[in-house]
Structures are given as structure tokens and as C-alpha cells.
Amino acid sequence: MTAASAVPARRDLSVYIHVPFCAVRCGYCDFNTYTATELGGGGSQREYPQVAMAEMDLVLADDRAAGYEYDAVSTVFFGGGTPTLLPADDLVAMLAHLRSLIPLAPGAEVTTEANPDSVTRASLARLADGGITRVSFGMQSAVPSVLATLDRTHDPERVPQAVAWAREAGLDVSLDLIYGTPGETLADVETSVRAALACEPDHLSAYSLIIEGNTAMARHLRRGEIAEPDPDDMADKYELVDDLLAAEGMSWYEVSNWARTPAHRCRHNLAYWRGGDWWGIGPGAHRHRDGLRAGNVKHPSRYATMVRAGELPRAQSEHLTEVERALERIMLELRIVDGLPADAVAPEARAMIDVHVRRGHLDPDAAAAGRLVLTREGRLLADAVIRDLTV
Amino acid sequence: MTPRIADADAAIIAPAATPVERIRNFCIIAHIDHGKSTLADRMLQLTGVVDERAMRAQYLDRMDIERERGITVKSQAVRMPWGVTDESGRTEAYALNMIDTPGHVDFTYEVSRSLAACEGAILLVDAAQGIEAQTLANLYLAMENDLTIIPVLNKIDLPGADPDKYAAEIGSLVGVDPDDVLRVSGKTGVGVPELLDHVVRTIPAPTGDPDAPCRAMIFDSVYDTYRGVVTYVRVIDGRLSPRERIAMMSTLAQHDLLEIGVISPEPIPTQGLGIGEVGYLITGVKDVRQSKVGDTVTTARTGATEALSGYSDPKPMVFSGLFPIDGSDYPALRDALDKLKLNDAALNYEPETSTALGFGFRVGFLGLLHLEIIRERLEREFDLDLISTAPSVVYDLTMEDGTEIEVLNPSDFPEGKVREIREPVTRATILVPSEYIGTVMELCQSKRGNLRGMDYLSEDRVELRYTLPLAEIVFDFFDQLKSRTKGYASLDYDVEGQQAADLVKVDMLLQGEAVDAFSAIVHRDKAYNYGVEMAGKLKNLIPRQQFEVPIQAAIGSRIIARENIRAMRKDVLSKCYGGDISRKRKLLEKQKEGKKRMKNIGSVEVPQEAFIAALSSDDSAAKDGKKK
Questions:
Q1: What does the pLDDT average to over A145-163?
Q2: Which of A88, A89, B26, B611 has its CA 20 to 30 A from that of B169?
Q3: Cα torsion B178, B181, B182, B183: sign
Q4: Mapping DSSP to helix (H, G, I), strand (E, B) and coil, where does residue B412 land?
Q5: Whether residue B280 sits in one domain with residue B169
Q6: Does residue B404 sit within a domain?
Q7: Least CB-CB distance to A359: which of B546, B591, B592?
Q8: Which of A382, A281, A230 is nearest to A62 (CA)?
Q9: Which helix (H) or strand (E) holds A236?
Q10: Mean pLDDT (whole number) for A54-58
């Protein structure tokens, strides 16, 4: 819709590259991932990097046709699935192809997600050599029974080892934890957080387990084999995680994310939350360009077929209205430690700002200064606060 | 017996020209399910009024709801020719008018007017079940009206039938030898011709003064979309002729008689109606209120000066607030009520505003079934989703300063000092197998009942007579009666006057704010139980909020029960959605839609479902409603 001539060149681009393969599917996972190595129609693991690179070419052409030109890529994120299920050379090749299209900005953040048991000392070194700067390990828990409930296959002992290899290769390290797994105790959470801290990560994400409808875990829940997550218990665990991390000098910068220093915050995710532009490469990946949101087809075979036919593998897209943009801004920025300027809230909803300050959900000093920043209580009720502040 | 009549004989019973001695007017008194409609169908077939092919099961019940529930709300009158052969072998033709009576407790007045249009009644009882309380009440009513009663056992073809037992029972009630109780099967037709013969032989012909000014009693009026109001009358004195100008004696309103005729079973215009005849009038009026049941129709010129006795205005006894679940349906609800009102003189309503439920109507009903029927028609025929508040009765209050106040709605209960509160009381009749006497008496005791008397109808069936507050009956008495007697008890009640009682208003407060829809007027001894129960129910139904919410039950400023809804601690999606922001936004938009459907009580958001569940007497809804 936007006239090409009216659009100035944009400097920063983030790129998400989805790798839709896993060795096993975890019971809680509803992400777009597949365990078969051979999917029909050219959707196989072996051929995947070539297809993804071909999509990059298509997206670049699409941007140019719409008048968008990016100077540099500031962040790249390989997510999954399990990106490290592919040979390190494949990830490096995809990164190299991207750089051939748009150069990486100096100091660019290039992350890959990894399973602790899908990396070796050599593969991590190869990734670092190839331009990856940061690795995010799916640690989830340090308690064997919890890992078993989550269908995670790695040995908890494997995590410090993998972290050490990553450090040796010069990579920044982030760890992912999941709390609230059925059967997990507060003591289990503490064990996991302490184990994570012992690895001295630069960054840590802790997500509460959400049992999505189309997962194996949801079926266990329906059959009564596991208990429904209790929100009070979730709140207790969140507070425990936050206390333990804060005591070790890691501070929150988004509801579910903590960093050792502001420099260690995940700039790729911040781009999502601050309304940056990004490509979403791979099946089911999502992109954003100046109010255009688009998602790719989910199945790797269909994806490969479309890309090979020279067609953007798009499943759906939408142009955000002003109202939607305003809504998204509140929805995303309010979750960040920097908060949201009070004037981003529509006048008719501003009366609720004081209400939430009074209820202890918004920081009073920040609010007085015109910024809306969640307190810890507020972080736990972020969705409720967001509903009240949007119209 | 020769059921069908030759043409020559038929002329004798032509409408408007039938001699009174050839007319028989009767009704059928029966309980729901005892087979009245099936028997009526058989009579229509036997008399040739409806042929086999046109026979629709239960021809007389017009509305879907009635057919589904197997009950008849609106009566009609059908004229049937019937020939009776005497000993000498001569067959004479008679015109039988079968007047259908409503079968339920709420329509006692309509029943009384239908009975007043008849000289006789068939008392129809299921040979497998025996008489029920409402049938007994209507039987007494018929006997008070000096009707000739023909006791009949129906469904004798059923395997579970015990005709000997129930013949003894109803024989003793009516005062006839059990051998004289007729036995029929409406389903197979066995015994029905004999019954019709019996009607002719035992029910007296109508009497009246043919030379007196016309007086005809309205026993029913029905709104028809095409014809306007169709009024059913029984001529007592004089006659009515086509194109005559008529007057309604209660209102003195005058109308032109556009059409007059008989139903057989479709309307057939006639040259008028003479003494004893039963038929219909059409005047072009659009509202049944202009044609009131029990009123007297006379001619505008040289009309009667004295109305027939027995007329009274229908008086609503039970009130409930009806609110559309979607507030924008309010105009549709108003239009729907306006339409139903055209056909229901007993229905009345006024706009009501509830802080909890928004705009709706306070609707008055004759009783609980009337309420249920109207509500169901609104939902079914007009496609409305409604919340109804707990039914309440009319209270008369005398304040300390002597002023009198009528309270139709608990939320209108005054703040000031009350000297006396009077509530409507009923004369209730309960028929129950004797093994349940104890449990029923216990129930009545707990509902503030006073035993007036008790009689054995037969060895194992008992009639209990109680004075019971109407408020207790509309609360949950009937459900409890049924469940405590495995469904065997039957109940009939009639409002008779008032009694002073120690009643208080219990308010339910959410975060200190009264929720008008949950206020109730209850006996002081029960206020505590009501408060505790309601607070517990609400606690389970209202989702946790961002802050703690106290739920209190209060009498005036005194708190009698309290529960707390703990503050919600976690309401955040803590999950990595990657770049799929649209999904997250759509989730938020969906949540916001849900929030819009909430009703705000102060700052507490209450889902509609919570109101519905809390106002329904079904406890299972409260148990399942909670979602943490």
C-alpha cells in the first residue's frame, strides 16, 4: 500500500531464521517443528538451508519492490525447533548468505538456540568462527523428574559442560528455564535456578509452562494424568525465580527475561517488543515491516515447494491499523523495564493509570515522571493491566 | 348408537337454530399427561368433525410449546354433532360443545370461567396413576359450580393400568358406585362412543331466558395475526346476531360484530348464536385486554343492565425481572412482550433498571408455570437470550409512620422502619402416597406451612391441606416436593389472602456494594442460611479480580455472612511467542471482548454466566462455574 518513493531507507533489520526440526517432540511444545528427517516435496533437513537462503532472496526482492532498503542487519536469531540439529556449517552458510544480501552491522548480535545435547565443543567453535556470537540453551530445569515430565532428553550434567564449551569458543550464553511443570516443587525451581546461576549465564529467560490445546501434555491434562497449573503456585515460582536471580545481580528487563547487564539484554527480542522491522525466514516464521505483519506457511514441504517456485511462502498477512499499532505498542512495551510513556495510553484509558499505581501494579515514581513501568506484582498481572490501559 | 347423523337430522342442530334441549356443553378435567388431548382427538374423529387424514395428533393444542409439554394453555371450544339412538330405535341429533380447559394451577381463574360455560364435566383420570392434586382442585371447582360430573378412567389399555383401584378412588370422590366409573382408551377409542352417549344422557341441557336482553360470557380470547382477537363466548340469555353492535359490560366499550360463528373444528360463520350455544366473535380489536375472560357481552341497543357474576381481573401474583443478556436486545424484548401481551391478558410489565443487569422489565405472572411459558416463548419465538431474577411475590408494608407501601421487587424494599409486612398465603393441596406423609409434612413445616387437614383418598393415598406462604412455593417448594417423594406428590394451590410475617430483606454486597439482582425478601429465621448459601455460591462463580473482593450478606447495615474472593496473583502470558505478535494481539483482543461482556459492580467484573448461574436454583452450575 505504501508508496515506494515516500519511504526512507531503514537502517536496522533483524532476521529470524526458523529451523523446524527436532530430534523428539516435547510434550508441552506447540511450536512449528517436525521430527522426521525426510519430509516430502524438498522439505527435508538436508535441503533446508538452500530453501531458506532462496527465501531470503525472495524477501529481499519483495522489500526492494516496496521501496524498503536496509543498511545493515543488527540482530539474527536462529530458533526452532532445534537449530543445532543441523550441521554447524549449515547455520554458518545461511548466515553467510544473509550477509551477502545485507551486511551485518558492527557488533551485531547473532544468536542460535541449542539443546545442550545437540552441541559439541567442535560444533560450538565452528559456529563462533562462522559469525555466531551468542547461544541460548534450552536448559528448562536441572531436576531429572521435571525434565522427564517435559520429555527433555538431556542429562542435566550436560548443561555446564555445554556452557563451558560455548565460553571457550567466545560465545555469550543465555539459558532458558521453564517453571510450573506439573509435579515441580518450589525447591525444584530453586535447584534449577541455582544450577543455572552456577553456569554464570549472561542472560536468562524463565517461562511459565503453558499447556496449549494441541499438545500431548494437554491430552494428559484432559485425562487427569497431570494436574492443572495453579496460578498462585505459578506466581510463587515466578517470585522465587526473580528473587534468586536478583540476589545474583541479574535484573529483569522484560516480564520473562533477565540479564547480567543492560548490554546483555537480547537485542533481537527487544526489536520485536519495540516495533522494529524483521524478516521471518522459514516455515511458520513471521515478519514485520512497518505495520505489515506476515506469516509463512507452516509445513516445510509446502514451504519448500512455494519457495522453489519463486513465490513468497506466505500464509497470511495484515496491515496494522493505527488502533492495532497503538494496542500492540502498549501490549509489548509495557512488559519491558523501560516501560511505556504515559501519553501512549489513549486519553479515555488514562484514568486507569492511577488505579494501577494505587493497586501497586505500576511504579509510582516512574508514573509521576510520565513513564509506566510495572512493579513485580504488576508484572504478574501484566495482561490485566494491559487490558485496562487499552481501549 | 349411530354416531354419524343423516342430513335431515343435521338441520335440527344447525348453529343459531338449535333448540336448547339438543345442546350439551361439557369440558374435560384432567391432569397433564392423563390423555385429555388424545381423548378429544378421538371424539373429533368419531363425530366426523375431523377426518382421519386431517387428523393431527392433539388437534386442539395449537402452540408448539403446548404440544411439546403436552399441556394446554389456551382453551378452545369445538362443536360436534352426535346422534343418540333411544330404546325405540329412533336416532336424535345433538350438538355437543366440548370446551377445553387449561390444566394448570396458574390458570385457575380461566378454568373457573370455562367451567361456568358448561353444564357438565368429564373427570378424566389416568388408570395407572390416579387423580392428581390439580385435577382434584378443578373437580371441587366444578362441583361448586353444580356441574354434572362424569368420572372416567383413561388409558385402560396400558399394562400398568389398575382401573379397579382408581375407580374406587374417584368413585368415592365423586360419590358414585365404582362400577359406574366409565373406562375408556383415548388411544384405541374403546369406550369413547359410550362416553359421548353418556354425555347426552346425563348432562343437562342449558337453560336461559330467550326473551331477555342478550348476555354471553367470555370464557377465552385469543389473538390471531390475521383476524385480530377471537373471543369465545357462551350465550346465557337472548341471542347474538351478525353485524350487531355489542358492548363489553366491564368496560362499556362498544364494538361492531364483524363475524360470529362456531368452531367445528375450523371457524364457521353462522347466523348468530342462541341460548346455550358456544361460539366465537370477531370485532376487529387487536388486544385481548379489550375482551376479558369472565366479562359479559351484551347488545349495544337494549342491552342487559346486569352483568353475569364471577368476573374478576387477572391479578399477577409472581414477579420476576427479565433482562436481555445482550443489552442491545432491550428494544426487541419490549416488542416481544408487546406482542405476547396481545394474547395474554394476565401478562403485565414495567421497565426496570438494575445496576447489575442493565435495562429490562419487571414482569408480573399468574404463577410459576406462566412465568416459565412466557420466558420460553420469548427465547424460542423471539430468539432472545434472557436472564430472569428469582421470582418474588407482592408484599404489603405498613411503615412506622402509617404509610402503606406495595413492594413488587425486593430491591424496592424501603429503608425506613417497617411496622408490619404482609405476604400472600395460599391454600395448598398436596396428594401423596401415604408412605411420604412424614417427609412432606416435614417439608411443609420447614416452609412455614400450617396443616389445615388431612384425608385418606384411598388406603394408600392422602390429601394434605396446608396454608403455605406463596413466597415459599415460588422459591423451590415444588422441586423439593417432587424430589422428596420421587415425583409422586402433586400440588395445587390457590392464593387466599395475606398474613403478617417477620420478613427481612437480605442484600448481597460485592466489595461493599449491593447487587440489586441478588436481594431477596426472606423470613428472618432463614436470612442467615440464605446469606451464607448465596455468598458461597457467588464466591464460586465470580472469578478472582486484581484485588481481594469481600462478598457479604447484610440485613440493613448488619452483616450476617461473609466470604472472600482472594486477589488474582497471576494474569500474564509468560511465554515466548517469537515474532508472532499478531497471535498475541488477537489473544488480547479476545480477552478484551470477554471483558466487555462483563457486568461491572463497582470495580468488580462479573461475567454474565455468574449471574445466570447464581439466579438459577440449579446448584451444579455453581459448582462447575468456577475457573480458578
A1: 92
A2: B26
A3: negative
A4: helix
A5: no
A6: yes
A7: B546
A8: A281
A9: helix A231-247
A10: 98
User: Of B391, B409, B434, at which residue does a domain stop?
Assistant: B391
Chain A nearest-CA residue for B576: A207
Shortest distance, CA A356 to any CA of chain B (angstroms): 10
CB B570 to CB A381 under 8 A? yes
C-alpha cell at B615: 439466579
Under a CB-based contact definition with an 8 Å cutoff, are residues A256 and A207 in contact?
yes
Judge if B47 and B117 occupy the same domain: yes
The reply to whether B153 and B280 lie within a common domain is: no
Chain centroid to CA A113: 9
pTM across the whole model: 0.71
The mean pLDDT values, 10 residues at a time, for chain B of 628 residues are 63 88 94 85 86 57 48 63 86 91 74 92 93 87 91 93 92 90 93 96 94 94 84 94 93 92 87 94 88 93 90 86 91 93 86 89 90 90 90 94 92 89 95 94 96 90 94 88 88 90 95 90 93 93 93 94 94 76 89 83 86 67 35
Cis amide linkage into residue B120, ω under 30° from 0? no
Q: Which value does ipTM take for this structure?
A: 0.88
| A208 to B574: CB separation less than 8 angstroms, yes or no | yes
Which amino acid belongs to residue B74? K
Looking at the fold, whether B92 and B190 belong to one and the same domain comes out as: yes
Domain limits for position B608: 504-625
CB contact under 8 A, B575 and A207: yes
Taking CA atoms, what residue in B is nearest to A255?
A: B574
CA–CA separation, A356 and A365 (whole Å): 13
One domain for residues B409 and B462: yes
**Domains plus CATH for chain A?**
4-273 (3.20.20.70), 323-389 (no CATH)
> What residues in B contact A75, CB-CB < 8 Å?
none
Which CATH number characterizes residue B611's domain? 3.30.70.2570
Is the domain of B376 the same as that of B433? no
Question: Cα Rg for chain A, rounded, in angstroms?
Answer: 21
Q: With contacts defined as CB-CB under 8 Å, which chain A residues touch B591?
A: 383, 387
Q: Please name every residue paired with B444 in a beta bridge, in sequence order, or none if there are none.
A: none
Residues of A in contact with B581 (CB under 8 A): 272, 286, 288, 293, 328, 332
Q: What share of chain A is helix, strand, coil (3-state, %, to 5)?
A: 45, 25, 35
Compute the distance between CA of residue A282 and CA of residue A98 in angstroms, rounded to an integer.
13
Write out residues 325-344 of A within 8 Å (CB-CB) of B.
Answer: 327-328, 331-332
Beta strands B267-269 and B259-263 are antiparallel
Q: Interior CA angle at B211 toward B207 and B212, to 5°?
A: 80
B516 and B493 share a domain?
no
Using a CB cutoff of 8 Å and minimum separation of 24, what contacts does B42-47 make? B42/B186, B42/B189, B42/B192, B43/B80, B43/B98, B43/B192, B43/B196, B44/B78, B44/B80, B44/B265, B45/B189, B46/B3, B46/B189, B46/B192, B46/B193, B46/B196, B47/B3, B47/B80, B47/B81, B47/B82, B47/B96, B47/B196
Cα angle B269-B275-B276, degrees, rounded to a multiple of 5: 90
Task: Decide: A242 and A250 in contact? Cβ < 8 Å.
Answer: no
- A387 neighbourhood in chain B, CB within 8 Å: 588, 591-592, 595
Distance CA A312, CA A282 (A): 11
Say yes or no: A79 contacts chain B, CB-CB below 8 A.
yes
Q: Do A386 and B588 touch (CB under 8 A)?
A: yes
> Which of A12-26, A236-250, B141-155, B491-505 reaches the highest mean pLDDT?
A236-250
Q: How many CB pairs under 8 A join A and B?
A: 96
CA dist list (Å): B74 to A208, B44, B146, B482: 62, 18, 23, 26
Give the pLDDT of residue B446. 93
In a domain, B209, yes or no: no
Whether residue B35 is annotated as binding a ligand: the answer is: yes
CA dist., res. B263 & res. A387, Å (int): 64
